[in-house]
Amino acid sequence: MTAIRTTILLVLFMLVVACSQEPEEVHYGSDECAHCKMMITDDRFASQIVTDKGKAIKFDAIECMAVYHRNHDSELKDAKLWVSNYEKPGQWLEASKAQYVKSEVVNSPMGESLLAFPSAEVANEHTSEKPGELLKWSKVSEIKTNM
């Protein structure tokens, strides 16, 4: 009976982990952007959408993710969107909760120069050193690219 219970718990655990909407590791230099097809190389600008089934769709820039999400909105309505913390690459932020700077001096892979920060305070600190426009996800999600 204990073996059956252990097996059932293990299967349930694997199902929960398999459907996790946590961000997946990005393999810089080999993963390709789902929108523009460029290689993802800069960890400061990476982003990803994780579907309700746990599939990660990766992007080389925040604007690529925004356009892709808008173009596939109906099939991604329950997905989670993640952006890399510009100042702490490798730390993922929920796109809807992050604060953004459209920088006047920092260039991103696709040229929109969108930087993600964990709070308005941190974003404001960045703009005091390097000029840029503060944005929320509602504005970022409307950005259009040439791709």
Automatic annotation (TrEMBL):
Signal peptide (residue range): 1-20
Keywords recorded for this protein, A-Z: Signal
- Record's protein name: Copper-binding protein
